[in-house]
Amino acid sequence: MTLLFHYLIILNLFDAAVTWIGLKNSFISELNPFMQAVYEINPFIFILIKVTLSIFLLLFVLFKVVPQSSFIKGITIFASAAYTAVVFMHVFWLVLVF
Question: Is the CA virtual torsion 34, 67, 5, 74 positive or negative?
Answer without folding.
Answer: negative
